[in-house]
Write a structure and sequence with these properties.
By secondary structure, the chain is an all-alpha fold. It has 16 helices and no strands. The chain starts with a helix and ends with a helix.
């Protein structure tokens, strides 16, 4: 099917654009602190996303990889692969919990609704999509990702038109705990590696040929780079006001107007939703088709709720750095051994 590369690119973008990306928090941490040099870092990151995405999809197509279990066993062997599988399975489970926790936070803080309603709403929507497996994942991402792209790019253009290129952070720091803007670009791509590996290893039905793999990975990576730059430019303009905030983009949107802030809160929720779907899909897809898969899906969705109630910021602060480091190592080994 000629449009399969669009579906792949949409899934790629929806997988990476989670709460940290769309909120601007990750973009500031990895790129904004370096000032204008961070833009170069984001460009490097977009190139890496394009290269790694295309290469991984080609390898999955060539080796006819149908699942993450198959990928792990092929690379690491059954014994060590079992350990890697457990670690990644736990990261997917907690990743889903983090996103539904974020949904609760948005419903409570931005929409004035109950925290529990936010959690339950995302769980129900996710469950419905999971029932349709890969078809549901590709359909939802194909619909929602364009809305994300439009919302993020429009916000950036509007702010730049109104404020001009009046950046409050130009020089930035030369070095940080992540090194410089170049090493930060590599670390940022690495922090997304685990979930990319898991989701991509299930996309074989959409990869009809190498051209589809290349177009899907290349276009997805380029768009991720463009969206990252869009958010980065917005945060550089208001850097002094937002660099310490958990959700910088919501503060920036409040300068446009309270109503637009609520609109961006919905955009942020969509970003959380697409990432929650990617994590949940990767977790559930480990189980082969059978009569117990529906029950397994129900239990997965319900069991994630108690963990989500620990709080969005708490979960992000503890879990993301750990799984980011693991993902960087695993992705490196997979690409080298392939």
């Amino acid at each position: 099917m000629k449009k399969d590369w669009i579906k792949i690119a949409s899934i790629y973008i929806g997988t990476v654009i989670g709460a940290g990306f769309a909120s601007g928090r990750e973009i500031i941490e990895f790129f904004g602190i370096y000032g204008l040099k961070g833009i170069l870092g984001m460009i490097i990151s977009g190139i890496l996303f394009s290269f790694i995405g295309s290469l991984l999809l080609i390898k999955i197509y060539n080796n006819k990889i149908k699942s993450f279990n198959e990928l792990v066993n092929k690379i690491f062997g059954e014994n060590f692969g079992f350990i890697i599988d457990i670690i990644i399975t736990f990261s997917l489970y907690t990743g889903f919990s983090v996103m539904i926790s974020g949904s609760g936070a948005i419903f409570k803080e931005e929409l004035g609704l109950s925290y529990n309603i936010g959690i339950i709403t995302m769980v129900i929507f996710s469950f419905i999509v999971f029932l349709f497996s890969l078809e549901g994942l590709s359909f939802v991402n194909t619909i929602l990702v364009p809305l994300l792209i439009i919302g993020i790019v429009f916000t950036s253009i509007y702010i730049n038109t109104r404020e001009g290129n009046n950046f409050s952070n130009i020089e930035g720091v030369r070095l940080s705990k992540k090194g410089n803007f170049i090493s930060s670009a590599f670390l940022y791509v690495g922090s997304n590696s685990l979930i990319i590996l898991v989701v991509f290893s299930s996309l074989l039905p959409l990869i009809k040929d190498k051209k589809t793999a290349i177009l899907g990975g290349l276009s997805g990576g380029i768009i991720l780079g463009v969206l990252g730059i869009s958010i980065l430019i917005s945060t550089l303009i208001y850097y002094n006001e937002v660099f310490q905030l958990d959700i910088p983009m919501l503060k920036i949107c409040s300068y446009i107007g309270d109503n637009y802030r609520k609109i961006y809160a919905i955009i942020l929720w969509i970003a959380m939703f697409t990432t929650a779907l990617a994590s949940g899909f990767g977790f559930i897809n480990r189980l082969k088709e059978g009569k117990y898969k529906l029950l397994f899906t129900v239990l997965f969705c319900i069991s994630a709720i108690p963990l989500a109630k620990l709080g969005f910021s708490n979960l992000v602060g503890v879990l993301y750095p750990v799984f980011g480091f693991i993902g960087f190592l695993v992705m490196g080994i997979v690409l080298m051994k392939f």
